[in-house]
């Protein structure tokens, strides 16, 4: 049977007086309630409740208790390293439970999500994306000559890119970089793109860390934003994480902390 690795700390099981027991290991009982709680945990994490699952859990609990008893008999539970590990595991479980409890009591509402989406939409309303071609060469003089040849109709921008560009990806496509916001490019390239008019080409080469660029902006448009339904899961998770961060900060601010 595949071992369950869901519970970090070992289960120290002691059945309440009068509780129904499902098994006894060296005189130590495992209660029906313990089994039900373990099954409930697994189901909450996606398992399908079934008789087979309950039997697997029962065997797992027996296996664990046998191992725990052996560890205690050998004095392993008294080891400083083990005690520290148990302490850290307990802290982790409590912190996780605290955060889950906070989120349950302070759920993210649809209004919160809508407000965050509206703010995002407002911030992005002026963003634009550009359909750009470029030719990348190593030397400035080479780039200047290409600009002159294209302006004199000695060659087309596409042919010059295919024959001269050292950017193999776009060069094979006539220099086409497709649609993208200017922020996708290195700063020098991005600045040039945003200052150019639709259909224009740079009069002077643009230098970047990659070399010298001849740039042509074929078109521009407002960035098309995804609908709320597409972004809702991401927005909800961001708001949940922000709520937890704010809560943790509040706990710190209200705590009496002295550092030595």
List keywords for this structure.
single chain; 260 residues; alpha+beta; Helicase, Ruva Protein, domain 3; Chitinase A, domain 3; elongated; disordered N terminus
Explain what you see.
There is one protein chain. By secondary structure, the protein is α+β, with helices and mostly antiparallel strands. The strands form 2 sheets. Strands 4-3-6-5 form a 4-stranded antiparallel β-sheet, with helices on both faces. The protein has a two-stranded antiparallel ribbon with strand order 1-2. It has helices spanning 32-44, 51-73, 80-105, 110-124, 140-151, 157-164, 168-171, 187-195, 228-254, and strands at 21-25, 28-31, 128-137, 176-181, 206-208, 211-222. The chain is built from 9 helices and 6 strands; from the N terminus they run ββααααβαααβαββα. The longest helix has 27 residues, at 228-254. It folds into 3 domains: 21-74, Helicase, Ruva Protein, domain 3 (Orthogonal Bundle), CATH 1.10.8; 110-122 and 226-252, no CATH class; 128-222, Chitinase A, domain 3 (Roll), CATH 3.10.50.40. Helix 1 (32-44) crosses helix 2 and helix 4 packs across helix 9.
């Amino acid at each position: 049977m595949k071992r369950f690795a869901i519970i970090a700390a070992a289960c120290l099981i002691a059945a309440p007086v009068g509780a129904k027991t499902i098994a006894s290991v060296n005189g130590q009982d495992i209660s029906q309630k313990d089994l039900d709680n373990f099954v409930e945990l697994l189901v909450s994490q996606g398992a399908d409740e079934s008789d087979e699952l309950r039997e697997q859990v029962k065997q797992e609990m027996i296996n664990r208790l046998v191992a725990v008893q052996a560890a205690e008999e050998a004095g392993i539970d008294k080891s400083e390293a083990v005690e520290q590990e148990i302490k850290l595991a307990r802290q982790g479980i409590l912190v996780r439970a605290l955060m889950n409890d906070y989120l349950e009591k302070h759920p993210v509402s649809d209004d919160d999500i809508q407000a965050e989406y509206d703010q995002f939409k407002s911030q992005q309303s002026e963003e634009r994306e550009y359909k750009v071609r470029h030719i990348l060469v190593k030397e400035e003089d080479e780039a200047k000559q290409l600009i002159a040849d294209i302006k004199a109709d000695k060659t087309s921008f596409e042919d010059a890119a295919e024959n001269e560009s050292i950017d193999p990806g776009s060069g094979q496509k006539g220099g086409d970089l497709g649609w993208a916001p200017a922020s996708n490019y290195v700063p020098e390239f991005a600045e040039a793109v945003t200052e150019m008019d639709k259909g224009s080409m740079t009069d002077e080469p643009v230098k970047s860390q990659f070399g010298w660029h001849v740039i042509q902006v074929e078109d521009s448009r407002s960035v098309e934003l995804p609908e709320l339904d597409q972004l809702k899961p991401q927005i909800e998770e961001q708001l949940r994480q922000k709520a937890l961060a704010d809560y943790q900060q509040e706990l710190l601010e209200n705590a009496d902390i002295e550092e030595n």
